[in-house]
Design brief:
Number of domains: 2
Number of helices: 7
Shape: elongated
Order of helices and strands: EEEEEEEEEHHHHHHH
Distance between the termini: 75 Å
Amino acid sequence: MIFSGAAYAAPVLPSLEVQMPQQIMKGDFFQVVVSAKNVSDLYGADIALELPNSELMHFTPGTELNGEKVFWVKPFSEENRLIMAFTLLAEKEGLNGDVKIGQMVFRATEPVELGEVTATLSNSASYPISYMPVHTSGDKSIFPDMTPAGWYESAVYNLFFLNVVNGYPDGTFKPNELITRAEASKMLALYLNIADGGQDESIFPDVTKEHWAGAYITSLAAVGLLQGYPDGTFKPEQYITRAEAAVIISRSLDQGFSASAKGLIEDNSRNFSDVAGDHWAKEAIDKLAMEGILKGYPDHTFRPDAGITRAEFAVLLSRIRNFSS
């Protein structure tokens, strides 16, 4: 047989992709995204994931299924395997191309590694596609601008799954940007679960009720965790300093400090070289340092007037969580 000169193109077969962080330690919250690739007329799926040492916290069906009438079987565990399934309802064309089946949030009870994954996908012609190739990716990040397995990744993810941080409208987190007083207030209020906006009137003239962080700022100020400047303003868009962050965190934890931390103000051996004895935030800085919540720099400075990045503030809140528990 004589073939034409056209190159032969092998058919692209369906496959399953599982995306999750590479390093998962005990206590971490982590996200797993399951997608089917190159499917044709997909109307149903049964998928089993082996994820030992993990507890399912939340399940969100894939966004690509929105608008379709879908019947979901709530994910359940069976012999250390997580089983999930769905089927489209009504007689209509199935899903084609790449389909996000679902995303799940887990909490690790011990370090976690992905084990065996199996899948059976069905199309409207009623024949199954079983045991498809499974591709795992360790660089899946909720926020694309975050470094996988970075020093702040676990802290940001934990706060994300607690609905404390959401990122920006473009999907980024901007970990290395300095955090503003408004942003820090929102994160702290959500973490402390006191963002009820219970005050009818704004406490600060430069924070109106319409301000996107107004309810959070007002709620924190109402319980004494936030204070403004001598002129009565709050300056919500100004970057918060390390000293200011130390003070508001210290106020939120004041009842939980150990006796040694409460008496640290008199212990000059632990002082930061750039935090003078009469510095307005010294007591808060020293207490947090004693408890391991705040840390200085290798040169034994604290840099109280420097800004704090969004990643650093996320790690700070994460340490509060460990301290409180």
